[in-house]
Amino acid sequence: MNMKWNLESLFEGGSSSPRFSAFVQETESLVAILLKELQSVNHAASDDQLSEWTDRLQQALARLREADAFVSCLTSQQMSDKRAVSLTERIQSLSAKYKQAQDLYEAKLAEVPEEQWTNWSGDAARSSVLFPLGERREAAKEKLPPELESVASELAVDGYHGWGEHYNTIVSRISIPWQDGESVASLSVGQAANKLDDAKAEVRDLMATKWEEAWSEQADLCADTLNRLAGFRLKLYGMRGWNDPLREPLKMNRMSGATLNAMWTAVAEGVEPLTKYLSLKAGRFGKTQLAWHDVDAPIASSQAKISYDEAAKIITEAFEQFSPDMAKLARKAFDDNWIEAEDRPGKRPGGFCTSFPISEQSRIFMTYSGTPGNVSTLAHELGHAYHGALVDGLPPFAQEYAMNVAETASTFAEALVNDALLRRASSNEEKLALLDDRLQRAVAFFMNIRSRFLFETRFYERRAAGIVEAEELSKLMVEAQQEAFGNALSSWHPHFWASKLHFYLTDVPFYNFPYTFGYLFSTGLVAVAEREGESFRSKYDRLLKDTGVMTVEQLASHHLGVKLDEPEFWRDAVSRVVADVETFASLCAQ
């Protein structure tokens, strides 16, 4: 199978595409006209005006998401594509203009008298977007006046978002020398990261040293960038009268602080059994404790590589067992070249899935090197693509689901693949390796992600008092890792705060807890799927379709009959996850 994605079917010509340039120009014109009109209206909006603005804003939103997705693909496949980088700035400027129009529109919604709002919003034409419209109306009441929000959006392009793009420039400069036999190569961070979980301990140990050194050399630049990003957020929050840096990410994820606290309480209770797993794994490696870079290493002394074609077969067959529609979507992604998986220099690290709402397609980005973890990542991103396919055709406002429920679909897809592999395992060693991979995921979501949340929470507390230097950032990072991992490791990753892209994303603050939410919520969904069998397929699809029009608490109550702001649901999910530890222990003893 082709391991390179096809972007030409979207906009031919890459970053020099005339059609894409025209598409962006048309979108800029649409947004500019809408913005000018909204700025000129200084009276109460009529029903017809509200309807027209709603339709045009949704049209602009779909076009903006299409453009942003394409540019993100261009910059990820080749970080040195300067034309693509300039397009990023253009799209960010367009996004700022759109946000200005959106802020004015939402302010108009907030001004609508209750009687008029009830009549207008209750019209059948708006039934599918009633929830996000109400959300926007309430949000406007909590922000600055539209003209000030507009200024903040304009300044953010070269300020806030500019610092985010600066981080990508820092990453593109990093080149890690690596000798493989007699040949010496310079690895990008994406290629180097794959060696951190190599089957050979000497490879992991050497790369861990080189990795830490590489990020240490860029620490001052990364610290400067991280401080400016957090400083911008805190200043803007302060101007709005918000005193909690978690307020925005909770709103964005449509969840309450009570739900977040209930989840972390249950997760903390699951740390002890996972430390037992880490200790057992260390024993398999002949160590008392694992090092940071040993956690994701395969437990098998030698592990056959899984070809890309084989991975595609494993995933589609696992999806087929649950839902033929999921399998159909996966086959389409492979056959139509939606996936960029080639292992080559110049690519950015990490993986993602991005949706093109107008084309009704997705594109998946990763660097595939044949590990079981790569197969899981591929299944994860295909889960995102399936979620995107389910909301295709809905009004754009109803497609805007939050990150935490987005991660539900992806981790559910991972679970399907991992469960299917475990059922097919023919030997204890194979079962042990598969359980190790599953428990690695549990460690990632319970411990690694929690350490990021603890770090970011404490960083914001310190940042409110002034600049936090690189050395202190590393200290905060290690303290968070030690707490989250229960001191179960022999070494830590002080510069993780520098090496992790998620800390530098400007679209979503606190890009961490939604992952754990999705992982545990999907664990609960797997349990329901096992109980209900085939009848759960349609319930699952309906739940995903509703992710843009309900809070997470409403989703769980309506579709599953459970309460998320109480610990019981989360404790049940945690218990299900850590049950693998005892199975792992019994296999280790054989």
Automatic annotation (TrEMBL):
Gene Ontology molecular function, alphabetical: hydrolase activity
CDD domains attached to this UniProt entry: M3B_PepF
Keywords: Coiled coil, Hydrolase, Metal-binding, Metalloprotease, Protease, Zinc
Cofactor note: Binds 1 zinc ion.
Top enzyme category: hydrolase
Protein name in UniProt: M3 family oligoendopeptidase
Cofactor section: Zn(2+)
UniProt-listed InterPro entries: M3B_PepF_2, OligopepF_N_dom, OligoPept_F_C, Pept_M3A_M3B_dom, Pept_M3B_clade3, Peptidase_M32_Taq
Coiled-coil residue windows: 84-111
Domain named Oligopeptidase F N-terminal: residues: 109-174
Enzyme Commission no: 3.4.-.-
Family classification: Belongs to the peptidase M3 family.
Record-annotated Peptidase M3A/M3B catalytic domain positions: 330-531
Gene3D superfamilies per the UniProt record, alphabetical: Oligoendopeptidase f, C-terminal domain, Oligopeptidase f, N-terminal domain
UniProt xrefs under PANTHER family: CARBOXYPEPTIDASE 1 (PTHR34217:SF1), METAL-DEPENDENT CARBOXYPEPTIDASE (PTHR34217)
Pfam families reported for this sequence: Peptidase_M3, Peptidase_M3_N
